[in-house]
Specification:
Elements lengths: L2 H12 L4 H11 L1 H21 L1 H6 L6 H14 L1 H4 L1 H13 L4 H25 L9 E3 L2 E3 L3 H19 L14 H39 L3 H13 L5 H10 L5 E3 L5 E3 L1 H11 L6 H4 L3 H22 L5 H16 L5 H7 L4 H20 L11 H8 L11 H22 L11 H5 L8 H10 L6 E6 L3 E6 L7 H6 L4 E4 L4 E5 L4 H11 L1
Antiparallel strand pairs: 1-2, 3-4, 5-6, 6-8, 7-8
Helix pairs in contact: 2-7, 3-5, 3-19, 7-8, 7-9, 8-9, 8-10, 9-10, 10-11, 11-12, 11-18, 15-16, 15-18, 15-20, 18-20, 22-24
């Protein structure tokens, strides 16, 4: 092996992915399919609302065949996200985790998922047990349905294959197949073998997941509380997506067998299936883990918290902080993106964040007890109207309003009392104009991106740069040299140092713009 090759390998080892970084990035990769799922869910909700008999009776013009054709088309195309969710996980995970050659990783994800099904089919057929095994058609291949978890595992394995073989050098006679071309070849071979193993090991996975689901179900009314509070507790570490995906897409969130014999797993998958069947099929047992539980805190509670921060600010500063707080409330209530407002008080008042965590869990629990059945993913005003109000009174959407008013009052009183009693420096309570402006995550101009890059140690200190909905996710050579105050002056809300190399910079919903500008500078 040449000296150059040895150096290359040692460098890669030093910049390897730590366990913490891996799980951080894994949670981030869920966002691509989940974002599509949320959008398709809204499309499904609108289509179902406008094809419902009650809606047509109230608004007869909606019954026009041309309009009904459009609404039914909306329902049909929305199913792409639900039918092919495992495949989307298999592709998006290696795409998101790979630091380079991302397109190769995504292609390998597709190839790997197909190879997995072919390997399983081969095993079942060769053993003569295909007919006696619970199977379904997956991309035209009769195989065992491992659901979203199977897609997740496939995606992780493909990412590992991609990382190991993307720079492989083969002998001259086979050099054409070396490098990134070898990734797909290795993926087919390895994932086909994994597919052969699946029928043997899958029952053990299934048993474990069902045990988790059984534990949640046995928790009764406290199950949704534990889920809602747990998700908020994990959010500062970026690991909440893993808990959410487990409940939404695996047996841990429930499992049903349809009239046709198809098994559907996960609270969100079950809800969408039941929703398309008709109102009488939608069960509160599964919606209690979905949008409705977030609404008291996301729409009303955090609005009360923002109002408390506004009223607690000094009079001379209220004009300056108003825009920040309003934009944060809009992001939470309309977009379901709560981090811009949560990270305002998370680090300066952890007690308030703990209060918010408990109240979010209680929101899930109360909505479940009241039998509200509003599904989907985001818990925002859009979900409230599309899956609540537009569907009719059977969703019990009207119960969200009195609970929301109570949550608004509780958040307002708790936040205002705590901020003023302990002199918490929320926006507007620091006489320094610089402190107020540091909380402003407005437009990210080019010079801000330049300041941000310099504050994190320059491009030489960056191993990888990525983002999720509101955060820059950075792997640095040395996180100790970053200038936190300079980062805030460049437009960030706050900085989270996870360890010596992993850093998250809380920016807001315009983080994608900032990342692109930093990439250009790099």
């Amino acid at each position: 092996m040449s000296t150059g090759a040895i150096k290359m390998k040692s460098a890669k080892k030093s910049n390897g992915v730590s366990g913490w970084e891996f799980f951080q990035n894994l949670g981030k990769t869920f966002m691509l399919p989940v974002a599509l799922l949320a959008a398709m869910g809204i499309l499904l909700g609108l289509g179902a609302a406008f094809t419902g008999a009650t809606t047509i009776e109230m608004f007869p013009f909606l019954g026009i065949p041309a309009l009904q054709f459009i609404f039914n088309f909306m329902i049909k195309i929305s199913l792409v996200a639900f039918i092919f969710l495992p495949l989307m996980f298999a592709v998006s995970i290696p795409l998101g985790l790979a630091r380079e050659n991302k397109e190769i990783a995504a292609f390998a994800g597709l190839v790997g998922y197909i190879s997995l099904q072919l390997g399983t089919n081969f095993y079942l057929t060769s053993r003569g047990i295909l007919e006696s095994t619970d199977t379904r058609m997956i991309m035209g291949i009769e195989s065992i349905d491992t659901g979203a978890l199977g897609g997740l595992i496939c995606g992780i394995l493909v990412y590992m294959i991609h990382s190991k073989y993307q720079n492989i050098e083969l002998p001259d006679a086979f050099s054409f197949f070396g490098g990134t071309r070898f990734v797909a070849i290795a993926t087919v071979l390895i994932m086909s073998i994994v597919g052969i193993i699946v029928p043997v090991i899958w029952p053990f996975f299934e048993t474990g997941i069902l045990a988790v689901g059984s534990g949640i179900q046995k928790a009764g009314i406290f199950g949704p509380f534990l889920f809602g509070a747990g998700e908020r507790l994990l959010l500062p570490f970026g690991l909440h997506h893993i808990l959410v995906a487990t409940i939404r897409f695996t047996e841990a969130g429930g499992q049903i067998v349809t009239a046709s014999g198809e098994t559907i797993s996960g609270a969100l998958n079950i809800f969408y299936h039941q929703f398309t069947q008709g109102p009488e099929f939608v069960s509160p047992q599964y919606t209690r883990f979905l949008s409705q539980g977030k609404m008291p805190s996301f729409i009303f509670g955090l609005t009360g918290a923002a109002f408390a921060m506004y009223k607690s600010s000094f009079l001379k500063n209220r004009t300056k902080v108003k825009g920040l707080l309003i934009s944060a409330v809009v992001a939470a209530a309309v977009g379901g993106i709560t981090e811009p407002i949560e990270f305002i008080f998370l680090f300066i008042a952890p007690v308030l964040y703990l209060f918010h965590t408990v109240m979010t869990g209680l929101g899930f629990m109360v909505m479940g007890i009241l039998g509200v059945v509003i599904g989907n993913t985001d818990g925002n005003i859009i979900d409230f109207f599309v899956f609540g109000v537009l569907q009719g009174l059977w969703t019990k959407w009207y119960l969200v309003l009195p609970v929301g008013v109570i949550w608004f009052g509780l958040y307002y009183v708790a936040f205002k009392w705590y901020i003023e009693k302990y002199n918490i420096l929320t926006p507007g309570r620091d006489d320094s104009e610089e402190a107020v402006n540091a909380m402003d995550s407005g437009d990210m101009a080019g010079y801000n991106a330049k300041i941000m890059l310099e504050a994190i140690g320059g491009k030489e200190n960056i191993v990888s740069l990525d983002n999720c909905i509101t955060r820059l996710r950075l792997v640095l050579k040395d996180a100790s040299i970053i200038d936190v105050e300079a980062i805030k002056k460049a437009g960030a809300v706050n900085v989270v140092k996870l360890n010596d190399t992993n850093v998250q910079i809380i920016v807001g919903t315009k983080v994608q713009v900032l990342k692109k500008q930093m990439q250009k500078l790099i």
